Amino acid sequence: MRILFHLLILLAVVGAAAPAHAARLKDIADVEGVRSNQLIGYGVVVGLNGTGDGRVDFTLKTMSNMLENMGIRADPLLIKVKNVAAVMVIADLPTFTRPGAKLPVTVSSMGDAKSLFGGILLVTQLKGNDGNVYAVAQGAIDLGGFAVNDSGDSAQKNHPTVATIPNGAIVERAIPFDLFQSNKIRISLRSPDFTTVTRVVTALNKRMGKPAAVAIDSGSVEVVIDQAERLNPVGLVASLEQVEVRQDVDARVVVNERTGTIIMGANVTISQVALAHGNLNISVRRENDISQPNAFAGGTTAEVTNVDINVGEDVEALRILGGDVTLGTLVKALNSLGATPRDLIAIFTALQQSGALHADLVVM
Q1: Closest CA to 351 of 314, 328, 317, 321
Q2: Which residues pair with 147 in a beta bridge?
Q3: In the predicted model, is pLDDT for residue 209 greater than 80?
Q4: 48, 63, 225, 235: which one has the fewest Cβ atoms less than 10 Å from its Cβ?
């Protein structure tokens, strides 16, 4: 806990002392349309060593249908195997990926299989949200762990019912998308902000030497591609991605009470306030004693319980905090209270309730 508190102070002092550096546009924004697309499919893993699904209805029907397509009739009610598991297969298809490219896939058990260790995924079609097949997956799965159970004793490493197949899917169809069809490029900020988007427009127009960029809203900028730049639009995007922009960040305090972690941004300030923080300590101690009467007294030997309750309170004097100070000064002032990270969480919450905290308080 003390290490986390000291780390908080170090980060605050460094952040307050260092100037705000510009970031590349590609690190704070995305080109609209350039994104991955989720694919999903239903498949079967075979070759398991008795760790597959039991009497799972959809697994048995899948096996029956699969065998029937191969010319073998099998009644689902008579199938009793544990070397097969029904799974869901997912993958991400990046934009502009062409047919023949390979993708990694993730395989997850759907039934009551205990482990997918040693299994092989049979041909599985991966579809997009439009219902079209964009890739086909198959291959030996990589579990990265194991699960062993024998005579009541068990050992497990990682999660045995989720596995991956590196390069396990082959792209069959490219997603139809023409990025430059409208002769415009739209750039979307990952953290919308009016100040940042204004700086982006200024930097882009300076790079291009003309007013080609226009802010649409707080999160997007539209860049017009003129006749000369249409000959190499990819080069234009690559050039714009390297433009450096100083991002404006909201004042924010993020706290996690479970771990005692506190992160404060460089713009966090508080109004000048008088603050005291004390703790109420209550301790309860129980002791079991034996009550033994003397030889001439009446009564019997009995066990009695003595309860000792102590209540104490740590009293702290009022201290003046806040005002027009840097983040490092603010953290040093809070540190002078001798507060732990959990105490600081309570202090920040009280400061927000009083209206003295000039930041957004996020409790995780």
Answers
A1: 321
A2: 156
A3: yes
A4: 235
Q: Mean pLDDT of all residues in the chain?
A: 79
C-alpha closest to that of 104 among 68, 139, 130, 148: 139
Quick one: three-class SS letters along the chain? Answer: CHHHHHHHHHHHHHHHHCCCCCEEHHHHEEECCCCCEEEEEEEEEECCCCCCCCCCHHHHHHHHHHHHHCCCCCCHHHCCCCCCEEEEEEEEECCCCCCCCEEEEEEEECCCCCCCCCCEEEEEEEECCCCCEEEEEEEECECCCEEEEECCEEEEECCCCEEEEEEEEEECCCCCCCCCCCCEEEEEECCCCHHHHHHHHHHHHHHHCCCCEEECCCCEEEEECCCCHHHCHHHHHHHHHCCEECCCCCCEEEEECCCCEEEECCCCEECCEEECCCCEEEEEEEEEEEECCCCCCCCCCEEEEEEEEEEEECCCCCEEECCCCCHHHHHHHHHCCCCCHHHHHHHHHHHHHHCCEECEEEEC
Per-residue model confidence (pLDDT) at position 196: 93
pLDDT tens string 229-259: 888 888 888 999 999 999 888 888 888 877 8
pLDDT digits (tens, 9 = 90+) for 289-317: 666 666 655 566 666 655 454 444 455 55
Q: How far is CA 70 from the centre of its chain?
A: 43
- The total of other beta-carbon atoms located within 10 Å of residue 96's CB is 12
Residues forming a β-bridge with 307 = 286
Report the CATH architecture of 180-245: 2-Layer Sandwich (3.30)
